[in-house]
What we know:
With 308 residues, this protein is of the alpha/beta class.
Amino acid sequence: MNAHATGFAPVSTIQWPVKTRDIHNHHMNSAIWDDFAFRDDDVIVATYGKSGTTWTQQIVGQLIFAGDPNVEVGAISPWLDLRIMPPDILDRLEAQTHRRIVKTHLPVDALTFSPKAKYLYIGRDGRDVLFSLYNHHASANQMFYDLLNGTPGLVGEPIERPDPDINRYFRHWVANDGKPFWPFYENIRSWWAIRDLPNVKLVHFADLKADLEGQMRAIADFLECEIPQDRWPAVIEHCQFDWMKANAPKVAPLGGAIFNGGAADFIHKGVNGRWKDVLTAQESADYEARALAELGEDCARWLATGRM
């Protein structure tokens, strides 16, 4: 099929994203991507964070391994730009012989971009992101803080324990664009801007919730994964929230060791809308106004609803 028929420009004429900066903070060191040796079939799962990252890694893992329940995606799919990754993480990835799945929380302009890898970017309403992020932050144990703040190479401020008042925490996150983590809106904007590239697919958390099988089949098509029909029931089952919760140590990073309740705290609720009975009408309206101003109407609508 020719480029005109597919609706995409010829690959040779596409203006591919170029890395223009590095990001360093208590979690991230984007410089590691400079040394990552891409393979043509790599799959990069990208989000701001707490948007369905682990869920999508599990989906991709199950598609690649055709429903194998023993795949430990938390072990084989690292967050590459997490600055506390082991020093040999690139060697470990190079040693993998299967199709690789790599996670990032970087905006596009801080990421080395391969025209041949496949990129899945997952979005989620920022209010849902924040409530999941708060649980993540509040559930973190001392190991979490020791690793992030005690590992040499920290740039900027250390991460502190969260404000116990979730409304105040929410207002601070909105007003300070993602603090105490990283900027929210630039991350969304950067991936929205490249949504039409042939190797980029935007996925929305709400769509995964509404039609998991349909979304998984669309992701399989995008990744060119051919799943035998008799394996689809297992592939789908192993991506259901209840199955992931019951098998959380296989899914959670570090097996959940950095959370008070272990992996079960990391695979927490997997629901949207928890903010509706907690945020005031003004807090919610302030978020919506900020999202519209930062993202524009089309992107803000997609982030809130999944509708393009």
